Amino acid sequence: MILVTGATGFIGQHLVKQLVEAQYPVCGLIRPSPRERSFAPGVKMHIVAGDLNDLPALRVALYHATHVVHLAGIWEETGRDTFESANLQGTRNLIDAMKEVGVQRLLMIGSIGAHTHSAYPYMRVKAQMDDIVETSGIEYTILESSAVYGPGDDWTEAIALALRRFPFFFPIPGDGRVRLQPLHVSDLIKCMLACIANDKTSRKTYIVGGPQQMVYDELVNIVMQAAHRSRRKRYLPPANAARWSNFMRGFIGGRTLYTKTQLELLSIDRTTNLDAVSFQFGFTPVRMANALDYLR
What we know:
Blueprint lengths: L1 E4 L4 H12 L4 E5 L15 E4 L5 H8 L4 E4 L12 H19 L3 E7 L9 H14 L4 E7 L2 E2 L6 H10 L4 E4 L5 E2 L2 E2 H13 L6 E5 L5 E2 H12 L5 E4 L1 H11 L11 H6 L10 H6 L15
Parallel strand pairs: 1-2, 1-4, 2-3, 4-5, 5-6, 6-11, 7-10, 8-13
Antiparallel strand pairs: 9-12
Helix pairs in contact: 1-6, 2-3, 3-4, 5-7
């Protein structure tokens, strides 16, 4: 059985669907919520209610597991939920529980640009999570990725919604020249499934990205074309872009175009070799302009 933490998240939902279709037995560790958690039609999985700080629930979820895919974590700090308490300590708890139960195989998604000395808390904690896993003694695989997009994401869909509902201009943080290498979620899932199926990927870190490097300004142009909405762009200091993002929430159904973490990520180049996926996993990822049908 494969335990997926963060099974209700953007990547988690896509992964669970593909695992079930590949006939893997799947268990999801899902934080209790008053909201009903829904998965794609036909997805059948075992569910354990709890989170990474609930050690008894962790042990129950791990009991029949052979692999763990660790996707759980928060993107924004709120109250007691900090990156250190939720993401870093949660990873420590998961590793400890895996050792206690005897589960030895872990797959985790990291981030290109993460560094233990980063000025940004999210990226600093992501690097510390990598360090914890790499020194844990368990069999791990880490996929460090550039920005991941696809149906249900929290950034390209917000951009498209803002383009449709906010008619005046589109705010760009800074000069829009940060370099990204967007990877479609389905291509990331292919890499993940390949790692799960091949024990030779153990104790390795793979850096993955899409088939194109582009600046954020170009990415917004591609989304404009997919959404059939052209807007004048206004280049703003990040603090001003955040204020406009908050103002625009009423136009885009309460969604936030630029969260604090997203603004930080839009100041870091996150690229790798253009052939990273084809060289390491044997297929060519889809180009972004050809994979945005969900925005139409």
